[in-house]
Amino acid sequence: MAQLETQKPSVQPFLPVGSVQLTSEMKACISDCMACSAVCLQSVTYCLQKGGKHAALDHIRLLEDCVQICKTSADFMLRGSPLHVRTCAICAEVCDKCAVSCESMADDAVMKACAEACRRCEESCRKMSKLA
Amino acid sequence: MAQLETQKPSVQPFLPVGSVQLTSEMKACISDCMACSAVCLQSVTYCLQKGGKHAALDHIRLLEDCVQICKTSADFMLRGSPLHVRTCAICAEVCDKCAVSCESMADDAVMKACAEACRRCEESCRKMSKLA
Amino acid sequence: MAQLETQKPSVQPFLPVGSVQLTSEMKACISDCMACSAVCLQSVTYCLQKGGKHAALDHIRLLEDCVQICKTSADFMLRGSPLHVRTCAICAEVCDKCAVSCESMADDAVMKACAEACRRCEESCRKMSKLA
Amino acid sequence: MAQLETQKPSVQPFLPVGSVQLTSEMKACISDCMACSAVCLQSVTYCLQKGGKHAALDHIRLLEDCVQICKTSADFMLRGSPLHVRTCAICAEVCDKCAVSCESMADDAVMKACAEACRRCEESCRKMSKLA
After folding, report:
1. Chain B residues touching C51 at Cβ < 8 A
2. Residue A105, helix vs strand vs coil
3. Which positions in chain D touch A48 (Cβ < 8 Å)?
4. D56-88, pLDDT tens digit by residue?
C-alpha cells in the first residue's frame, strides 16, 4: 500500500483552513500551474535527448518560457497577491503557444501529454484572469 | 464528481513512462519539494498577517530560503541532473532549520502544518543525497 | 585599483557580439530588471528588520512580486523570447505599484533608493512593451 | 554620452549604506553570480541555435543548472541569509563543471566567454563558502 503510494506521488501543497484564504478555483489553478511547469521542465530534457525538431530553439525556448511563467503565476496566487490576475493572463497566452508547439509533434506521446498539461493550465489561468 | 475534484486539487506533475527516467523515490522527493516550497510561500503571507514573532526577520527569511532551495532541488531532479544529490543535501539542511523555526510556534496549527511539510521534505532529500 | 573595483562591483552580464542578438535598448532593460530585482530583495530584509509599517503584508508582498516579475522579464529577454513584450508590460505595472508603496515611505533613504530602481525599471519595461 | 552608457549597461544592484550590511566581498560575489547566471542563460539560446555538440543534453543541462544555482546563491546573499555559505559551496561546484563543459568548446569565442564567467563565479563562491 505504502509502496503504491510512493509510486504515484501527488503534491498536496496547501496549508490548512485558517491560513491564507485561497478559493477552490484558485487552488485548482495553482495546481495546474505547478503541474504544467514541472511537466514542461521534464519535456526540455526529453526533447534534448530526442534531438532533431524536438530540440529546435523555438520549441525549447517556449517550454522554458512556460516553465517560468507558470511558476510565477503559481507564486503570485500562493502569496495571495491581487496582481495574480495579470500574471495569469500572460500565463494563459504562453501556455497556448507552448501547447501549439507540442501539438505539432502530437504523434509523440510525451509531447501530447505536455500539450495537455499546457491546455489545462491555459484554461485555469484564463478563468482566473477574468475574475479581476 | 468533477466538483469534488476541483475542491481537492492535487498536482500530477509527471510525464508518462517513456520520457525522462525518474525513479519512484525521486518522484516522491520532487513532490515533497514542490509541496514544501508552496506551503512555505503561503506561510510567509500568513506570518506577515499575524505579525509579532511570526513576522520576525529570521523566521520569514528561513521560510524564503526554504521556498527557493526546495524549488531548486525539485528542478535539478526534474531536469534529471546528476548534481541533484548536492542540491538535495543542502535542501535537507535548510528544511531542518526552517522546521525548527516553525516548531517553536507549533501551538499555531498553520506553523505546525508548515513544520510537517519541511520535515517530510527534509527526510526525502536526505535519502536522495545519500544515493550518490 | 583592483581593490577599488572590488568595492564597487558592477555586473557585466552580456555575452560578446556574435552570440544572441540583443539590442542596446534590450540590454539596458535587462540591466534595469536585474538591478530592480536585487534591490527589492534586499529591501525585504531591510523592511523586516525595521518592522512597523515597513513590514506590513501589502508592502512586503509587493516587493516580492516585483523581485519575481523583474527576474522573469529579464530572463525572457536573455533567452531572446518574442514573448518578452508581454512580461515587460506586466513588469512595468508591478514596478509602478511597488514604487508607489516605497514612495509612501520616501523620508527613508533606503525606500527612496528602492523606489528609484522601480521607476527606472518601469520606464525601461514600458518602452520594451511598446516595441512589439 | 548618454548613448554610450546605454550601449554598455552595467547593473548597480545594491542599496545605499545604512540598509542590509553586505561586505564588499559579498557584493563582488553577488555580482559574479548574477553575471554568470545571465551569461549562461544567453548561452543556452546560443547553443541551441548552433546545434550539434553545442546542443547536447549534458551541456545544456549544465548551463541550466548553473543559471539556477547562481540565482539561488545570489538571492541567499541578498537576503543576508547565514545559509549562503552552503549555497555558495554547491554553486562553486556547479560552476566548475559548467566551465569544464564550455572549455571543451573554447575555440568558440562565446563558449570561452561563458567559461570565464563561470570561473570568476566559482572563485568568488569558493571564497564565500570558506568564510563560514
Report:
1. 55
2. coil
3. 55-57, 60-61
4. 999 999 999 999 999 999 999 999 999 999 999
Please tell me the distance in Å from C68's CA to the nearest CA on chain A. Answer: 7
Q: Which residues pair with A11 in a beta bridge?
A: B11
Q: Does the structure show a pLDDT above 80 at C33?
A: yes
Average pLDDT over every residue of C29-54: 97
Within 8 A by CB and 6+ apart from A99, the residues are: A115, A118, A119, A122
Closest CA to D115 of D127, D129, D104: D104
Q: Cβ contact (<8 Å) for D61 and A48?
A: yes
Assess contact for C55 and B48: CB atoms under 8 A.
Answer: yes
User: Looking at this protein, which amino acid is placed at residue D7?
Assistant: Q
So what's the pLDDT on residue A49?
A: 95
- Which tens digit of pLDDT belongs to each residue from C54-81? 999 999 999 999 999 999 999 999 999 9
Report the largest interatomic distance among the alpha carbons of chain B, rounded to a whole angstrom.
51
Through-space distance between the first and last CA atoms of chain D, rounded to whole angstroms: 43
Å between A7 CA and nearest CA of chain C: 33
CB D37 within 8 A of CB C38: no
Is 70 exceeded by the pLDDT of residue A19?
no
Instruction: Look up residue A105 and give its amino acid.
Output: M
**What's the predicted TM-score (pTM) here?**
0.93
Which residue reads 504515484 in cell numbers? A8
Question: Rounded to whole angstroms, what are the CA distances from A6 to A1, B13, B27, B72?
Answer: 9, 14, 8, 22
Give the number of A-B residue pairs with CB atoms closer than 8 Å.
Answer: 131
Contacts of D120 (CB under 8 A, 6+ apart): D32, D35, D36
What would the DSSP string read from start to end of chain D?
Answer: -HHHHHHS--B---PPTTSS---HHHHHHHHHHHHHHHHHHHHHHHHHHH-GGGG-HHHHHHHHHHHHHHHHHHHHHHTT-TTHHHHHHHHHHHHHHHHHHHHTTTTSHHHHHHHHHHHHHHHHHHHHHT--
Question: How far is D72 from chain B, CA to nearest CA, in Å?
Answer: 7
In the numeric block, which cell numbers belong to residue B128?
Answer: 536522495
Contact A14 B42 (CB under 8 A): yes
Beta-carbon contacts below 8 Å between B and C: 21
